[in-house]
Amino acid sequence: MHDYFDRETEVSLHLFRVFSKAFKSISDHSATCCKNEGFNPTDFAVLEILYNKGAQPIQQIGSKLLLQSGNVTYVIDKLERNGFLRRHPCAKDRRVIYAELTEKGKEAMGRIFPRQALMLNRALSGLSLEEKEMAIELLKKLGMQAEKLGHSPAKKTV
């Protein structure tokens, strides 16, 4: 393709493009399901963490979703205002604030989450169970290496 890249770099670029397109297609399925239920994907992601993991420190919710703290506060405020979650201070450290689902939030997620899971299963149906398990391991390996390298620019090798 380009004379100045070696084969491995070309394949890495192609992998990035394919990965990005696949991620967008699958994310679009998820977003459609969320929107059909009246939530944006970020709102739903916060509710999903609380539904599956129970009460969580607000700061940890943001880091799990890779959100800036201001964005987390905005989403939490909106979900609390609409009655889906509540905040409460940690009994051991009052600087830590937890978010947890209300009964309304639990009921909504009990209805929505199974549909979301089926939608994602359908969106990922292009792979067999074994291929999905292999993809999980490969993507974890890829992510851990990228994280280990940090965000410093690559050294020029050409």
Automatic annotation (TrEMBL):
This is Transcriptional regulator, MarR family. One of its GO terms (molecular function) is DNA-binding transcription factor activity. The keyword Nucleus does not apply. Gene3D superfamilies: Winged helix-like DNA-binding domain superfamily/Winged helix DNA-binding domain (1.10.10.10). The keyword Transcription regulation applies. Keywords: DNA-binding, Transcription, Transcription regulation. One of its GO terms (biological process) is response to stress. The lineage of its organism: Bacteria, Bacillati, Bacillota, Bacilli, Bacillales. It comes from the Bacteria.
